Fold this sequence. Notes:
Elements: H1 14-23, E1 72-79, E2 84-86, E3 94-97, E4 102-106, E5 111-119, E6 122-130, H2 141-150, E7 151-157, E8 160-165, E9 171-176
Antiparallel strand pairs: 1-2, 1-3, 1-9, 3-4, 4-5, 5-6, 7-8, 8-9
Amino acid sequence: MKGNCRVLPGALRATFAASVLVLAGCSTAGKGAKPQAPPRPAAVQHPQRPQPEMIEPAGPWAFQSLPFAGMVWEWLGNLTPTETMKVEQPDKYLLKLKSDGWFEVQTDCRQGEGMYETRDQRIAMAVVRLTDAACPPGSQHDLYLKSLESAGSFRMTGEKLYFDMTNEAKTMVFWRIK
């Protein structure tokens, strides 16, 4: 195709036509001219950047084994500065935090599991799976799960475990049963 090159019609821009011809190995100088290779761009010199120190990131959250992992807890209720909400059937609302960052949850009408992360005395929890069952009227299922997912910090005193809510002046109270 090198010998049969022709200049494209004037409808195309000259720069585009020249580029196509150069890429095809043709010259815009006319017949008999040797094809010209496009000029090589000058090498770009990048300034040397200093290498950053390698520091292990702590990350905002990390899994930390908890002293109460593996234990089973009954939900006794929620405390606020002005009231105490008691659970009528605490044996129906159970929580088991496993040592691998997962927890099992049971309410009066559903069972499920979720994930948790901790850092120091802070905790973040999320329920990820629940059985699909209808809850009876008067169930505290929704309040229980909402409170768990609102937990922002924890502490343990004797046989009791406390989760303080992130955006509320409310504390969940659990009693250790196993």
